[in-house]
Amino acid sequence: MGSTASDELIGTWVTGWAGARGYENRHEGRVHAALRHDTSGDWEYVIYEPSNEELVAVAETLHKHPKRRLTAFANETSSLVEAAKAAGLNVVNSQEVLMVTEMGGHDVEEPRPADGFAFQIERDSTHAYVSVHPVDEPDVVAASGHVSAVDGYAIFDRIITAPDYRRRGLGSLIMRSLVSLALEHDVEEGLLIASMDGQQLYQSLGWTNLGNVVLFEGKQDA
């Protein structure tokens, strides 16, 4: 695997993640940011291996703007969490990981939908959205996902299977379809953020861990 976690790599991930979701995004030095208009309506900061000084500065901003969040990428999380708490931050989620795969090792043919299901594919420049629907209930989204091509990387996001349709292989089907769409562009590696539940699926599809992801919020006054 060619890539290692770095500030540049995280900046690329932010660009693809924000692009897939339609977020405005900014990059100021080591601090990347995306405006999450569909959830908090405020900014989420993203930093690779934040220093103590950066944690203190972000904590001050989050205290003033309670809806804002910080996503931090780190190889080792215990010291990060300790420093963040000392700076005035609370952990929201520490169970996600950044994962990577070599795109050349994946199938290039678009997969066939499972019996009783149909694909819906939407393309917008370097972004693509795939959803799977029961043939007899076309308004129901059984599984879906996004992918964006950015600077030689395919950024995968929001790979979701509805609870009633899990354990039917639809998550793998979505991933293979997104890979097929991503390979229409000049991409060499794929990146995604995996929840604890999704990590086993992605590992079975050839993805490997590249680092840990921790989401923080500011401590609020009692």
Give a quick rundown of the structure.
The protein is an alpha+beta fold.
Sum up the structure in keywords.
222 residues, alpha+beta, Trna Endonuclease, Chain: A, domain 1, Aminopeptidase, 2 domains, 11-stranded mixed sheet, 5 helices, 26% helix, globular
Structure characterization notes:
By secondary structure, this protein is α+β, with helices and mostly antiparallel strands. The chain folds into 2 domains: 7-99 and 211-218, Trna Endonuclease, Chain: A, domain 1 (3-Layer(aba) Sandwich); 102-192, 3-Layer(aba) Sandwich (Aminopeptidase). The chain is built from 5 helices and 11 strands, in the order αβββαβαβββββαβαβ. Strands 1-2-3-4-11-5-10-9-8-7-6 form an 11-stranded mixed beta sheet, sandwiched between helices. The longest helix is centred in the N-terminal third of the chain and has 15 residues, at 7-21. The N and C termini lie far apart (47 Å).
Number of helices: 5
Gyration radius (Cα, Å) is 18 Å
User: Which parts are unreliable, with pLDDT below 50 for 5 consecutive residues or more?
Assistant: none
According to CATH, what is the class of the largest domain? Alpha Beta
Query: What's the helix-strand series?
Result: HEEEHEHEEEEEHEHE
Number of domains: 2
What do we call the CATH topology of the largest domain? Trna Endonuclease, Chain: A, domain 1
Morphology: globular
Largest sheet: 11 strands, mixed
Task: List the quaternary state of the chains.
Answer: single chain
Percentage of residues assigned to helices: 25-40%
Measured by DSSP, the beta-strand proportion falls in 35-45%
Distance between the termini: 47 Å
Question: Count the strands?
Answer: 11
Mean pLDDT across all residues, rounded? 93
| Named CATH architecture of the largest domain | 3-Layer(aba) Sandwich
Arrangement of strands in the largest sheet: 1-2-3-4-11-5-10-9-8-7-6
Structural class: alpha+beta
